[in-house]
Design a protein that fits this description.
It is built from one helix and seven strands; from the N terminus they run βββββββα. By secondary structure, the protein is mostly beta strands. It has one domain. Strand 6 and strand 7 form a beta hairpin.
Amino acid sequence: MHRQPINYDRILPDSGILILKVDLNAVEGTGTVKVMDADPTSPGFKHATYRPDRRNRSVFVDTVNNVAILTLRIEGKNLEVLVTTPEKALMHLK
């Protein structure tokens, strides 16, 4: 989900790719969706999004599910991403 501070989201503290992990086995209302926070040390999800212009927040890696998401570039309101494996993501970052 590409979050941007426009329209009803104008007051968002951050913009970029917000990655959500869905637990299909969870009972509704008991944590079905979890935000994969890019910076869990920042309070209130202020830096939760992944962005190519933020060094420590440019790549999401999930080794359990063998998936990685790299944010490649921002052009206007568009954000380009690459969905790949963790191994290939590390090669791409070198």
